[in-house]
Each structure stands twice: as C-alpha cells, then as structure tokens.
Write a structure and sequence with these properties.
Blueprint (H helix, E strand, L loop, with lengths): L11 H7 L17 H13 L9 E4 L2 H4 L7 E18 L10 E18 L5 H12 L7 E10 L2 E10 L12 H10 L1 E2 L2 E2 H14 L5 H17 L6
Antiparallel strand pairs: 1-3, 2-3, 2-4, 4-5, 6-7
Length: 237
Amino acid sequence: MPRSTEPLSLTPDHIARVHRVVADAGPAVGVEQQTDADYAGWVERILDAHPCPDRPIQLFAYGSLIWKPEMEHRAERPAVARGYHRAFCLRIHRFRGTVDEPGLMMALDRGGQCRGVIYELPPDDPALILDRLFRREFTVKPINSMPRWLTVETADGPLRALGFVMNRDSPYYAGRLPPEAVARTLSRACGHWGSGAEYLLNTVTQLDARGIRDAGLWRLQGLVAEEIDRNAPRPLP
C-alpha cells in the first residue's frame, strides 16, 4: 500500500515541548526482576516449541521493534496477526514513565487483528538472539509481554512467527482505556528513554511509511497533539 498523504497532527515540535531529561531511577523497590536463569528458561521453552526448528525464526513486529529492532534481520515482509490488536495497555514506571508520572506502552492484547511486519532472524545461534530479544521485551516478574508462537497471514500464506502478547494477569496490565485517557498519559509521561508522545510518533511514522494505517493510532496521535497544544503551548516569540 502507498504511504498516506494525510499529514500527521503530532510533530517533532510537539515532542520537543514535552521532552525532559529524566534520570533512570532503576528497578522499582519491591518489584522482582527476571534473572539470568529466568531468561535461559524462556529461551529453552521457546526453542523447544519452535514449530519449524530447521528454519530461521520469524519474528512478528508491530511497534517499537519496527523502528528500533536492535538486532540483525535478513528479510522484512508484511503480515497480519488475527486475534490480537495493538493497545496502550501496559502501564510503566520506568523507561518512558516514572513512579510519579506513569506512562503507557503498547502490547498485543486479545481481540481484533494487527497488521505488522515479519523479520527473518539470522539462523546462527538462535539462543543468543532470543536471550537478547527477551531481555529487551520483558524485565519484571510476573512477565508482562509473553513470547508466544503465533500464526500470522502473509502474501505467501500462513506462517508461524514469534510474537509478544500481553499477560493480562500482570499487575501492569492497564486494561482497555478510553483514547482520551491514553492521550493524556502519553502527552505527559517521560522517562530516561524519552516521552510517550515520541514513542507514539515513531510508531505511527514507521507504520505509515510501510503503508500500514492503524485507525486507532492515527486518531490517538491527533488527540496527543491536541493535549500538548493545550497544556504545553509554544513559547511566545
């Protein structure tokens, strides 16, 4: 699909107005972290369940993995995961939020469908690649973003791919929030990785560049721009 010609309402200027330098406070007190042994266990379980162990791992990316993959991949192609949708349903107190001003990040939550991309990961040392990937995607216990083999649809037919889905039993699961509430949070929350507004803009921009229009995210970016214009106006010349 061609890239949309409709301009985004949310712009780098909005991001600059809400950005602030935030020191990393580290893991929250009393929150149990995943250990090396935990990560090794997840790697073993996922590799043991690999539906095609003689083939490279296919990874389904729907959000920040698209614009910040942090790992090599050999191919990219569009795909659809049915039964899941993007949702700002993961409450965070670090990275793009703080304890005083919690943020929200996207996860794959149950219901609907999600258009994203498939990455083919290098076949060499898949355990090392998965360990690095898992340390990026989840840090606390109980786990919030669970690795799972999904069936996704591609132009060449169905494919089994690794994805990360929201654990609704996680204490950080925010549930289904009204778009206006999500917009208020994203327009204000900021952590040492940057702001929630920046996270949203990066995602929408990269999806749009691939011809993927997520109606919910498109509406959300407009609401976030309105929130910033209302609460963080441009300084007078």
